[in-house]
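Q: Okay, next protein. This is Ig-like domain-containing protein from Oreochromis aureus. I've checked the sequence twice, so it should be correct. Can you predict the 3D structure?
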Amino acid sequence: MLLLLSPINDLTGGHSWSQIFTGETITLRCEIQGGEGKVWKYEWTAPNTNSPPTSSEYRISRVSVSHSGDYRCRGSSDYLLTGWSDAFRLTVSFPSKPTVTLQPSWTQIYSGETVTVRCEIQGGEGAQWTYEWRAAKLNTPPTSNEYRIIRATESDSGGYSCRGRRDYFFSEWSDIITLTVSYKPKAKLRADNTAVPVGGSVTLTCSVNPSSSSGWKYYWYRDEKSSEALTTQDAVFHSNGQISVSQEGLYRCRGGRGNPVYYTEDSQSVRIGKTVTASNRPVVTLYPNWSEIYRGETITVRCEIHGGDTEWDYEWETNSRIKAPNQNEYRIRSASSSNSGNYRCKGRMKSSQHKTTEWSDSVTLTVSDNVHSAASLTVSPDRVQHFTSDSVSLTCEGNFTEWRVRKFSEDGRLYSDCRRMTGSTCNINTSKSDTAVYWCESGSGEFSSAVNITVQNDGNGPILVSPVHPVTEGASVSLSCSLRTQKYFPMELKISAVSKSDEGFYKCQYSGRESAQSWMSMNSSRTPCAANVYFCLRIYFFHQ
């Protein structure tokens, strides 16, 4: 006798499954071959059962994971007892939730492309599934695990989900995957320049919008009728859809992806020309002409192109940390160390963007944090404003033996020496003509800081008593009025801790008469006369 144990699906009797899912129904059948004509009783060994059946069939309704295990049977008739059958191992598992995937894996596609929507049930391999689909456009949904969309249209946009069915058992519905089908896109071409510089190249960039779409390769063409894409002999190819070209021509591009390749529409064409160098060569100048300035100062870097009435656009190149604008002047206000560097420029004709000048020579600008002067000037009495016929002394100090006090007057005249110089001191009996800017100069050419002296011509008017030198930040200072006949007034302006906001012009008033105005500055500001005294003087009288 041969004892066989075989499973059959209870409802159809036609499937032999060792892998089933929770909730399904299965029947195991014990067959004794060669035992026909006898009346058999059956005995079963099975997991998770207290009262196994005695018939040849063992039916399990709505199986659970606990029914997994080995099943055996044997038969008995009168005094005859068979041996145990071979074990049949039953595996019961929870059904996996299906997953919808796209091949290629692009959720953004374009009209005319082909995509395959696929339903996958992990752990259900080998099972005989049929599939149900929920889709945006499916009049007759397929029953297979793949749904192929050929030459997609916008009506194919929408959500797709699926589930598996095995006889009367259904899996869960998958999560929805959304497919978007848009009109055929047009590539976009961008050039960083439309003129190839002498000995150089121009970078072209091709892209496809929206940027969320992926998988694109880019194809480049030159001249309107050319259908042959550029190769590495025609251009240098970079990543991210960029190429560098050095030849003139009309360039366009398009994107392509997939197999067979799906192409976008061609981009707009961009004409690339050669740069023609103009004979004019620009010059970079600094105004004022200081190659070294100090933190907080203002200076203008200027690009000058001489000759003719041509209108120019300007391009700057600098290794400073702040990029210069494309104008002929670059005004640096409140300079810092980030403005230090080399500056050069070139011009591009407005009437012909392909025609440019050569680059100018570079000019180096250095921005320092501090200014150090080897010479100094003291004024007695220590104030800016004085009456006529006052005795004022200006004394030069420093490690030098030869000194002279220089003067730049209101009428723009430069005086090289003091009329009454005793050693290092210049003595002045003031008159209106002594209103000027004064500084010390050593025999070796060292400059002190400059000071302003203002002589009041109105014998009855007041003068402002203010410090002749810049004031240290945080120090206290007093400003007051004075008359020729009355030196001190109870009216006084006291600043207990000077700050940058206190810097500016001050004047005083008495009995309807006003003093001249004088500038009070902070000593954190560099006195520009230490580098270029003549420019300082022009600025001073301009502000007066």
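A: Here is a summary of the prediction. Residues 9-15, 524-544 have pLDDT under 50 and may be disordered. The chain is about 5% helix and 45% strand.
Q: Noted. On to the next one.
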